[in-house]
Amino acid sequence: MGNTKNLSDNEGIEKLKDLVDDIKTCLFCTNITDIPFKARPMATLDVDDEGNLWFFSNKASDKNDEMKNNDAVQLVYAKNSSNEFLVVNGKAELVNSKEKIDELWTSMAKAWFPEGKDDPNISVIKIIPKDAHYWDTINGKVITLFKIATAVITGNPSDVGVEGKISV
Fold it and tell me: In Å, how far are 2, 63, 65, 144 from 136, measured between CA atoms?
């Protein structure tokens, strides 16, 4: 069993930033209104102060085409080792901004864009969250495992986690 703690405004944005900064990679899902929807792993570059999430993508990718036809996306983050989980539903926007590319650029991005910041194939995706839901442990992994073990032995439910909606 766990606690419910819904977060909004600055508290919600801080929780979103903390979880995304810790997990980094998500399953970036497009065509979420169709079955099967499309999912692929993608590294999140940043969560800004408004709660928007930022990614690089190849201009010719299927996901860019899919977002032009349907801008609804879902991002699924999971870090089993620390029992942290986050699902973000939002709207995708393709941003054409050299300044944003410069701001978000990392040396790792060169693996996908060999010509660097000036690669003609680079595009920027901004995800504007509509809603999000998180699951997290209250006390960290070691104490959580101890509480789970104690609950199994005693038969008494354990209060090991917290979950809630994030509104930004």
Answer: 9, 29, 34, 10
CATH number at residue 60: 2.30.110.10
Task: Say if residue 122's pLDDT is above 80.
Answer: yes
Helices (H) and strands (E) in the chain, counts: 4, 10
What's the rounded Cα separation, in Å, for the pair 11 and 115?
A: 39
| Model confidence pLDDT, tens digit, residues 42-68 | 999 999 999 999 999 999 999 999 999
Side chain identity at residue 80, one-letter code:
N
Helix (H, G, I), strand (E, B) or coil at 5: coil
pTM: 0.83
Number of domains in the chain: 1
List, as one string, the DSSP characters of 30-95.
Answer: E-TTSSSPEEEEEE--EE-TTS-EEEEEETTSHHHHHHHH--EEEEEEEEGGGTEEEEEEEEEEEE
Structure tokens, 4: 């419910």
Tell me the β-bridge partners of 42: 26
- Domain of residue 155 covers 2-167
